Amino acid sequence: MPPSLTSFSDDARIALDNLADRASGLVHPTIRLGVTGLSRAGKTVFISSLVHNLLNGGRLPLFEALRSGRVSAVRLEPQPDDAIPRFQYEDHIQALVRDRIWPDSTRAISELRITLDYQSASGWGRMFSRGRLSIDIVDYPGEWLLDLPLLAQDFRTFSDNTAALAGTGIREELSREWLALANGIDADAPADEMTARRLSEAFAAYLRACKADERSLSTLPPGRFLMPGDLEGSPALTFAPLPNMSDTKAPKGSLRAMMERRYEAYKNVVVKPFFREHFARLDRQIVLIDALQAINRGPEAVQDLERALTDVLACFRPGHNSFFSSLIGRRIDKVLVAATKADHLHHESHDHLERLTGRLVDRAVKRIGMAGAGIEVMAIASVRATREATVKEDNHLLPVIVGTPIAGEMINGERFDGNKKTAIFPGDLPEDPEAFFQQLDSVNAELPEINVVRFRPPALEEANGGMKLSVPHIRLDRTMQFLFGDRLA
Ligand SMILES: Nc1nc2c(ncn2[C@@H]2O[C@H](COP(=O)(O)OP(=O)(O)OP(=O)(O)O)[C@@H](O)[C@H]2O)c(=O)[nH]1
Ligand SMILES: [Mg+2]
Q1: Is pLDDT at 63 greater than 90 in this prediction?
Q2: How far is the CA of 46 from the centre of ligand 1 (A)?
Q3: Which of 168, 230, 459, 467 places its Cα 20 to 30 Å from the Cα of 96?
């Protein structure tokens, strides 16, 4: 028997929330669109550019409702949830467009409502309604998703899983200090606050080291250990997994009993509320992944990204034996996995990146033994910071990308000042992803070299009247068509 996930009252509340959402959805059709991804994946930039393009008539030929002229008005409206911080669209767009700097990192959940007035494509539909669709965009850290599997794990399972993973690859080195400390402690001895704190700090330091490592491993749960917010220092964050626990029940008053209780508290005060108030109410979801950075960092980063993606997708596509199935009153019916920052590649490679990401998703889907229906994959750039060109070298034409590296960026020993443009050869991905994954699975894996330079956001072109045009992008229109185009039919 899997441990029960939420109590009866939680279930009832989810059902009620969903009912309330549905009832208001009848009067006023709404989609709740989740935007997630691990930190720095590109969530803030994605939402900013999507909204900017919709509000400013961006070039979106593959977004059918707009192309065919059926969208008559687009506007931002007050969001329905008073307790969720608003997505600060104006600040982010000001940074991107006016100052040409990337927006600041955002570490919590936020929401923005954009509403479209449209005409139905069918004469039948037009007769009954002048259409209006609100899209409630919810931006939340992917790290919070990685916590959901904890709901089905007791403290022992969590401890065993964490310790097992800590012994693999580069993690073995990074976890050494924490494990040495943990293994030297008698978990059945009486509980002691200072020991709990030392263990918890050493464990958090290990998680931080994984993230900071140049191979940039993906995050491991508990997600809030890296972004504690206002829970910092609370008992619910002052615990750590215990390797090598004895098989007996935890003695009363022992350190083990204390850790176990705090682990359960973490689930109760952090994971369940997120699940109930946010996750269980989503209709559609986009998961952003920075596959190029992972490839750039090497095989272990790619394998780690694949593991994180597997865990994330398992939350959306519960199999028949999954502990989520019984809980999700309404089901997310479309999931898009998008490899971001494709503007770091020449356009010939965009399809290669898309195929490679597709294989990554296939492998993840196979691993959890679920069906991949409803999952789509794309390679996109929310903001195109580069343009393409060719340079002649030894009588060959080489495809390059041109952009303005951000101030301080070093390329071939040259330090850039934030104003000077440069052309770089971005590197290429294999046409056939199979070769890539054969390499990835081999002992001495060698991945293709991708040149990831941090460019400034682009200067926007101006229309004839001197008006600034919308933010340039790659395939953002396809993204919109997939995520909500069908609801504007
Ligand atoms: N060239 C390029 N860079 C991008 C693009 N999207 C994001 N980036 C880069 O990636 C960084 C992170 O993007 P954000 O949108 O802030 O990522 P996030 O997922 O919101 O990150 P957190 O808020 O820290 O979780 C940006 O500062 C940019 O440097 C893109 O479309 N093109
Ligand atoms: Mg952000």
Answers
A1: yes
A2: 8
A3: 230
